Amino acid sequence: MSPAANNLVRWRPEPGAVLGFHKGLARTVLVSVSDLEQRLAKGARACLPRPFESVIGLALASDRDALAEALLRARTTWAPPRSFAVPETLHFEVAGACPLDCPSCYLERGAAAALPWERLRQTLQEAIDMGVLQVAFGGGEPLGYEPLEEAVALAARHGLGVSITTSGLGADTAKLSRLRAAGLDHLQVSVPEQPSSRDARLGDAPWAALAAARAVGLSTGANVVAASPALTELPAIAAMALRGGARSFNLLRPKPVARDRQSWFERNRLRGEDWRRLAVAVARIRSKMPEIRLTLDSALSPIIGLLAPHHRPRPTAGCAAGRRFAAVDRNGRFKPCSHLQGAEEESSLAEYWKASPALAALRSLEETIDPGCRECPDLESCRGCRAIAGGETADSDCWRGC
Ligand code: SF4
Ligand code: SF4
Predict the structure, then answer these.
(1) How many CB atoms lie under 10 A from the CB of residue 250?
(2) 386: CA distance to ligand 1 center in Å?
(3) 112: which of 42, 103, 210, 285 lies 20 to 30 Å off by Cα?
């Protein structure tokens, strides 16, 4: 795909709205049909949602037919309640195997199976046909997955945004060049927040991977776990990531890990005052390092009430499992997100998205969740992480003390 094509905005119909995706920026925006039509009629550009302020002119100039078609189809598009008509993003857990043994890994020790290529190809093709906009390949360690280049090429050929999440081990310039040539857009590297969270064999591989990715022209980002003992270190780690070549810095909430590593989660989970310390770290990174794009994992949504107490809830905020995205495990089964159990054997992604009882339960959490979250003013922009709270239980680690 040419750089020019990377700058195009693809538009997809949603009920009463269109979802735009800019591959070069890896950003999406949901705009209601009436809002967009009014602005188009007036030729107004400046008031569109922020991520698209700078590219809307390009979008309108280069893809007017596709936009017109999406606007037309938005009038008859159906979606399950509180979710997109089809997933915006699909996560593939391509490999269970990893040469490392990090205490913070969510996979069981010795989880070795890899997603069979034919199953990946079939599901990816279905996702492309349905209109999924982005795919992310992870693991285990995805860089050791043999058909990875083929998978990247298939997704990229159809204009999807393609990213890989890696520990950095094995991410040398030659491999990343081949992946870039196949159509990879973005490399997300997991950077240790404290030495005790990672296998010592990792060494400086994450930093070498970031440098190699920048050298071959990939967009790069660092994933860092906002672990309780490391919260005050986060600004320093962000500064290192920036110097190391990362252009985005994604904070992840510690989540339950495989049963045989559960003590790591107990030592690192966020509770009570941790949330305020995290809010201070986030504010510091934002003010001192505006050049790095700071993003927060949806499991960190409770922090919105601390950072922006007077915000208006966005329809796309909060836990996105089964609403905006889904995951495919290494056995080819579907899950609402990589961190949730309860994978289902549906034969097709469309059927899973439309008819899964587990997804229906997630989409009705606003009515069924325990009172601690149900009575919270931030419920619609949060809902608490299900991987941590489970089922319909309120998130008892939240700073609100529910
Ligand atoms: S269950 Fe947790 S980890 Fe999964 S999408 Fe929701 S907030 Fe994120
Ligand atoms: S009480 Fe529940 S919904 Fe409210 S911020 Fe905390 S986790 Fe989120």
Answers:
(1) 20
(2) 6
(3) 210
Q: What is the mean pLDDT of the chain?
A: 88
Ligand 1 contacts (CB < 6 A) are 298-299, 319-321, 337, 339-340, 385-387
Whole-angstrom distance, CA of residue 348 vs CA of residue 333:
10
Candidate from 122-131, 145-154, 340-349 with smallest mean pLDDT:
340-349
Domains delineated in the chain = 3-73 (no CATH), 89-389 (3.20.20.70)
Question: How much is the pTM?
Answer: 0.91
pLDDT band at 20 (very low <50, low <70, confident <90, very high): confident
| Beta-carbon-side half-sphere exposure of residue 251 (alpha carbons within 13 Å) | 29
Q: What was the pLDDT predicted at 52?
A: 56
HEC secondary structure over 367-385: HHCCHHHHCCCCHHHCCCC
325 CA closest ligand 1 atom index: 5
Q: Where are the alpha helices (DSSP H) in 131-261?
A: 148-157, 173-182, 205-215, 234-243
Phi, psi (5° rounding) for residue 193?
-90, -20
